[in-house]
Design goal:
Layout lengths: L1 E12 L6 E12 L3 E5 L6 H8 L7 E6 L2 E2 L5 H11 E4 L11 H12 L3 H14 L15 H14 L4 E5 L7 H18 L2 E6 L2 H6 L2 E6 L2 E7 L3 H8 L4
Parallel strand pairs: 3-8, 3-9, 6-7, 7-8
Antiparallel strand pairs: 1-2, 1-4, 4-5, 9-10
Helix pairs in contact: 3-4, 3-5, 4-5, 5-6
Keywords: ATP-binding, Nucleotide-binding, Transport
GO molecular function, one term: ATP binding
Organism: Aquimarina hainanensis
């Protein structure tokens, strides 16, 4: 089932000297359960693309359909509500609330959704156990390693039972072991629960795990390859390092 469709997407940033066309006529679609990476050099437009898919930025032109609903047409208040119930986010900088415990950070999204206290408790413990943090549910972010904080962020992203999860450079601040653990957890959740993951990344470790690799250059899709063609993609990406 198709969960996301992007049609003729354009994003132009205006400044004093020249307009910058960050995204230039992108057309893409994603099926339920995909594990995909959007890759490209710095400034290629991959983060801009992810931000518009997630409703964090507004396109200059084009359409973005999530379950056949064009989110570009939503009012700001309806867009906030739509994100809350349909999209999970994992950011490079974790974005955890420092005064809350791991459990409270995960529960926070569900509280905004109006879930009951019991449901929030059960779901948060279930998710934190799934990401290997059962023993750290009462720890605050300052008492967790970077890898542990990012795992809390993944649990929080899944708390709302989203249609898909958008992860913007989720491994950028992690060492190799933490990255491997995090990606294994995400891949397991993807395969067992059918959750769609879309990454924006230049990390080869993420690219190796992805089953679909979409390459962006100068705001355009230059290739869209499945895992069977990943070796060709890997050679192409060596020039981006």
């Amino acid at each position: 089932m198709k969960v996301l469709e992007i049609k003729n997407l354009v994003k132009v940033y205006k400044n004093a000297e020249v307009d910058v066309r960050a995204i230039d006529g992108v057309n893409l679609s994603f099926e339920e359960g995909e594990f995909a990476a959007i890759v490209g050099p710095s400034g290629s437009g991959k983060t801009s693309l992810l931000n518009m898919i997630g409703g964090l930025d507004t396109p200059t032109d084009g359409e973005i359909y999530v379950n056949k609903q064009n989110i570009v047409l939503l009012s700001p208040s309806k867009l906030i509500d739509f994100r809350l119930h349909n999209i999970g986010f994992v950011f490079q900088s974790y974005n955890l609330i420092p005064v809350l415990t791991a459990k409270e950070n995960v529960e926070f999204i569900m509280e905004l959704q109006g879930k009951s206290k019991q449901e929030r408790k059960e779901r948060s413990i279930e998710l934190l156990t799934a990401v290997g943090l059962k023993e750290r549910i009462n720890s605050r972010p300052s008492n967790l390693s970077g890898g542990q904080q990012q795992r809390v962020a993944v649990a929080r992203a899944l708390a709302s039972k989203p249609k898909f999860v958008l992860a913007d450079e989720p491994t950028a601040n992690l060492d190799s072991k933490s990255t491997e653990n995090l990606l294994n957890i995400m891949e397991q959740l993807n395969r067992e629960e059918g959750i769609t993951f879309i990454f924006s990344t230049h990390d080869q470790r993420v690219i190796n795990k992805a089953r679909r690799v979409i390459t962006v250059e100068d705001g355009k899709i230059v290739s869209d390859e499945r895992k069977t063609q990943a070796k060709k993609i890997n050679r192409q990406l060596e020039s981006f390092a």
